[in-house]
Amino acid sequence: MFGSQTSFALYSLASIIPVLLILFYVYKRDYFPEPPRVVLTTFTLGVASIFPIQILIPFVEGIGENLQLYGEEYYFYISFIRAGFLEELFKWLILIFYCARLDDFDEPMDALVYGVAVSLGFAAYENFEYVTSYFINDGANAAKNVLIHRSYTAIILHSLCGVFMGFYLREAIFSKENHRLNLFLSLFYPICLHGFYDEIILSPAFSIFWIYILLTLLVIRALYLFNKERKFQLSSLIEGSIPKLNQIQNSNIVLIISLSLGLLILALKLFQYF
Fold first, then answer.
1. CB proximity list for 210: less than 8 A, separation 6 or greater
2. What is the pLDDT of residue 6?
3. Torsion angle of alpha carbons 218, 242, 186, 91, nearest 10°?
């Protein structure tokens, strides 16, 4: 029905539609919407983060080669360092050095919106690259399969990393306690989530089924966080001022400790020390 060029254009467009839909949904969650120009700039900076990442990838992969990693050790390094650390670091730097300094960054919900925006910017480029590459090399059917799979997994994963990065940054900026801990977690937590996701994808030791369990639990948690922030905003509408944040909950501390211990045990097991 369509020529190859038209099909390529359609698949290119389809690769970014899920990104735009999620960004629009998150933007509409905010009772006090951020200026569209600022959100678009944050999204664009997320896209641009691919350039320094691509420059550093050969160096990071070179270190992995020098370490002579094989099997599960290699999967762990690629998942948590080459992908998780490198990609989440540049998203985090954009939030710290651009978003957090904005005059419009004046309430807790802003951190979640900007976190998702910068993550989806990177996800848009990455998804476009995957889909178009498969279309060129393997044909439309292969591109279609990649598009469907990534729309329900990778794009959601990047969105969730942005949510949790924004959540802990929100705690670091607007809460008076645990400032350094929350600032650290705003980077460490997304790295762990991203790393676990890629580890499941790469390692034959894990069933792909675990990805859907992981994403389902994280989506539920993310929706809870957004609903909580909307309640804060609704209270501010009623009271005429933005309410103070609660201190970090004990459940979050338990979650952090459990995640850290799980990561440590996984690392030791993969490197055959446990």
1. 200
2. 81
3. 90
